[in-house]
Amino acid sequence: MELLEQIVRAGVVGLGGAGFPTGKKLDCRVEWLIVNGAECEPLLRTDRYLMRHNAGRVVRAAGAVARMVGAKHCVIALKRAYTEEWKALEEALVGEGPESGGPAAGRGPESGGLAAGRGSAAGNYPESGGASVPGTVPIELFPLDSFYPAGDEQVLVYEVTERVVPPAGIPLDVGAVVSNLATMNAISDAMDGIPLTKKYITVTGEVKRPTIVRAPVGTSFEECIRLAGGSKEERYCVIDGGPMMGKVMGYEEAREAAVTKTTSGIIVLDEDHYLSVLSKTPVGRMKRLASAACIQCSYCTQLCPRNLLGHPLEPHKIMRRFAAGGDIPSLLDDPVVRQAAICCQCGVCEQYACPMGLTPRRINALIRDEMRKAGIPYERREALWEADPERRNRKLPTKRAAARSGVLDYYDFEIDTLAEAAPSTVRISLRQNMGAPAQPVVQEGDRVREGQLIARCPEEKLGADIHAGIGGVVTKVTDYIVIEARG
Which keywords does this Swiss-Prot/TrEMBL entry list (predicted)? Predict the structure, then answer.
């Protein structure tokens, strides 16, 4: 079976958060394959755990994917501060030999990065044709500084290749494809015929034993928190993901939440934490605060990772129009306001740059939603996109991002333990990825085994198949499939 078919059949999606179906993403021909091991969100430790303990499987998959997409360069990018992870990957590269794509090129974490191919023209790259190609592709480790958001796809492409992905573009536009390190681990499983049914998750914050939990998709957040020793707080909020970009859930919502393929972190915080309060700010209050307090300092623009790549996104100008104008739909004819469509929602403007505590990211998200509802596409002008010369001096240190987000107390936690979840019941959402939800192929009363296909991607749609994370009996089929383990 061809590797691309194995990936599709295993239901693999991007595990860094977006959940784009991996089989579709890797059906391409590129010059650069970049494996994203930056794990830039403060507090998350999952990818680092996988690099230390599953390095061989990651390297094996990276070499196979590099050959499949015809890459000339295959890079695993990780922070130079990740010394144990770097050592584990180097050992895996040497140990795997031809299977992995060959040994590393010998650059240590103190290295300045790659030399070959930097800054060259992108050329034209067809969008399909992911067949296997003969030969091996050397894999190189690429050292990154500890800054946020180093793991953003477009930021990472520039760090490695010095090519700027155009506004509203994708890495394929400059001859690259980026895949998360955890996704590579899942691809290695797919190569062995194992579907994606379990997720590695960082559980941290106000818990008694911060840990990595390996949980079947559909496991309750409550069970994952229990495996980390339980919450220190009687009532708490939870961040699904990282503190900069993750979704804040209140106590009741968190107790009802379940693990999906894209769950990367469960961060337990005090119910009245700053991030919880910020997430509840209503639009009317955001507008009043912007009108009264925005001083047009432009720090949000100066530190915006997209603006620093040369993209025409200026949050301070959007804030000025939002503060002075009517409701959001009335602003959509303004070309400056429409630039909100290229915001990556990293949160630098909101949680770090703004000295007045305003919410540019949330306003950009609201504008983008209204543009989508109104059917207004982002119109990119033709230009030669170049990064800001000041970019190097304006990178946000990750630890400082943690401090401004109010989670510094948890930043230095060493997490290297694994807890295996064995839930008696799973509640599996049919919407696990970007694109269309899967369609159930089981019904109430069916007995299923672990790894069995339970929902299929609709024909000719963007999506991914879903498999059972535990064996048992299907007890409910709605927008979710509930499976109960029964003897």
Answer: 4Fe-4S, Electron transport, Iron, Iron-sulfur, Metal-binding, Repeat, Transport
